[in-house]
Design brief:
By secondary structure, this protein is an alpha+beta fold. It has two domains: 3-247, Aminohydrolase, N-terminal nucleophile (Ntn) domain (Glutamine Phosphoribosylpyrophosphate, subunit 1, domain 1, 4-Layer Sandwich), CATH 3.60.20; 257-409, Rossmann fold, CATH 3.40.50. The chain is 28% helix and 29% strand. It contains twelve helices and 22 strands. It has helices spanning 14-22, 51-60, 104-113, 123-137, 141-151, 257-263, 265-276, 305-322, 331-334, 357-366, 383-387, 406-409; strands at residues 3-8, 31-37, 42-48, 67-73, 88-90, 93-101, 154-162, 169-174, 179-185, 191-196, 208-211, 217-221, 224-228, 234-235, 239-241, 277-278, 283-284, 298-303, 326-330, 345-351, 372-377, 390-393. The strands form four sheets. The chain has an eight-stranded antiparallel sheet, with helices on one face. Strands 5-6-7-8-12-13-14 form a seven-stranded antiparallel sheet. A five-stranded parallel sheet has the order 19-18-20-21-22, with helices on both faces. α3 crosses α4 (123-137) and α4 (123-137) packs across α5. The longest helix is centred in the C-terminal third of the chain and has 18 residues, at 305-322.
């Protein structure tokens, strides 16, 4: 549930970092922090508890600089304390991280035996220490960044600042979503550059956005963005207009987003039905022209949480009306057990965000073992949508409330 915001701007960025973090509060978190580069040094401010606590600290002593990163943390390693909050600093490296570094214990032990002392209980501080060590051992920054991915195992979205590089941000993604946003061109001829774990974090900041793919890492500078794949080859990722739903986050007259979204269900369902029904002819539109259910002898539906509950309803309807057997799987269990696939089997992956880590991993794992894959998502630009053979969008619009309402009905 952690959130990341980063800005490589033309002016002081602290206020906008806090604004971006405020858009991610719906994710749930226990601490927050930001780091700002003033050209020579990186200044870190952290607070446990609500974002308002961090706001108070920043208001008391506002960091100055045009380059910065911010984070809201949901504890995985260590308690909710200031020491465990992000960003974490090690030598010249200061970074924030979503995900879990699975081999952090081995890396921590190795670093400790070399004399490294740790200030936190987190895997993220270990990550910062590893990158700082690689920078000291490598001939170039690119070499150190590439080497990092041979050392770490697990899922991550990373944004890092490095002292000695006052106009550069390093970012990477594997299993956890990360987007790069681009602002409008300035008088100097350069566009501001933004980073977010969620397009919502970039609302009001970026005009266009691109999505890193698993294994990608990038170096962001004022005059250029370089993206590299897992092998170190420079690649180009498609840039699209900022999703409209990311610009519509407002709870209006309601006390909270969940209440608003309960009342939005008639509107969101009407929007969905307009997408799938030809009202005048009284029949379904060809909503997935590349996807064919004919000849299918089994459907496997894979999801987590609320999306998993929705597949139970779908199973009843598909078996009643289409007469095709349906199996339902929780993604985290589906990934880790031996499976037998039929020769005429399709798999449907359901996720509101389209970024659910276990569901995405299950989709990648099943490819090549079934006839085709279908994504049922609320975000057509998401990782699951991009990786599936076909997409059905539920047209629910932004769902900020953690307890799902309109996404479930969609």
């Amino acid at each position: 549930m952690c959130g990341i915001v980063g800005i490589l701007g033309q002016g002081d960025v602290a206020a906008r970092l806090l604004e971006g973090l405020s858009r991610l509060e719906y994710r749930g978190y226990d601490s927050a922090g930001l780091a700002v580069m003033d050209g020579a040094r990186i200044h870190v401010t952290k607070a446990e508890g609500k974002l308002s606590n961090l706001l108070e600290k920043v208001a008391h002593k506002t960091p100055i600089g045009h380059l910065g990163i911010g984070h809201t943390r949901w504890a995985t390693h260590g308690a909710a304390t200031v020491e465990n909050a992000h960003p974490h600093r090690a030598g010249n490296v200061t970074l924030v991280h979503n995900g879990i570094i699975e081999n952090y214990a081995e890396l921590r032990a190795e670093l400790a035996s070399a004399g490294v002392q740790f200030a936190s209980e987190t895997d993220t501080e270990v990550l910062a220490c590893v990158l700082d060590h690689l920078l000291s051992q490598s001939a170039t920054l690119d070499e150190a960044c590439q080497a990092l991915f041979h050392c770490i195992q697990g899922s991550y979205a990373i944004a890092a600042l490095i002292e000695g590089y006052p106009d550069l941000m390093f970012v990477a993604r594997n299993g956890s979503p990360l987007a790069i946003g681009y602002g409008d061109m300035t008088e100097s001829g350069f566009a501001e550059i933004f980073v977010g774990s969620d397009a919502l974090a970039l609302s009001g900041l970026a005009a266009r956005v691109s999505y890193l793919e698993d294994g990608d890492w990038a170096l962001l500078r004022p005059d250029r963005v370089q993206v590299f794949d897992r092998s170190g080859a420079e690649v180009t990722r498609e840039t699209v207009e900022m999703p409209k739903e990311a610009l519509q986050i407002d709870k209006g007259p309601y006390a909270h987003f969940m209440l608003k979204e309960i009342h939005e269900q008639p509107e969101s369902l009407a929007r969905l039905l307009r997408e799938v029904l030809d009202i005048e002819r009284g029949e379904l539109k060809d909503i997935a022209p590349t996807f064919d259910f004919r000849g299918v002898d089994r459907i496997v539906m894979v999801a987590c949480g609320t999306a998993h509950y929705a597949t139970h309803v779908a199973k009843y309807w598909i078996e009643e009306f289409a007469r095709i057997p349906v199996e339902i799987e929780i993604a985290s269990e589906f990934r880790y057990r031996p499976r037998v696939h039929g020769k005429n089997e399709i798999a449907i992956f359901v996720s509101q965000s389209g970024e659910t880590a276990d569901t995405l991993a299950a989709l990648k794992d099943v490819q090549g073992h079934v006839i085709s894959t279908l994504a049922v998502v609320n975000v057509p630009t998401s990782s699951i949508a991009r990786d599936a053979d076909a997409i059905l969008t539920i047209e629910a619009g932004p769902e900020i409330g953690v307890a799902s309402t309109k996404a479930f009905t969609g």
